[in-house]
Amino acid sequence: MNAFIDKMRRRAGRYLHVRSEPIRPERGVLSLSFDDVPVTAWTEAGPILAEHGIKATYYVCGGLAGGQNMGLPQFEPEHLEAIHEAGHEVGCHTYEHVSTLTLIPEQLDASLARNAAWVNDVLGGYEMTTFAYPFGDCALGAKAVIDRRFLCGRGVRDGINAGSADRNLLQAIGLESRRLPGYDLEALVQRAATEKGWLIAYGHDVMDGPTPYGCTPDDLDRLIRLAKTADLDILPVAEAWRAVGG
Ligand SMILES: [Zn+2]
Question: DSSP H helical segments within the chain, as ranges?
Answer without folding.
Answer: 2-15, 40-43, 45-52, 77-85, 105-122, 142-149, 185-194, 217-229, 237-243
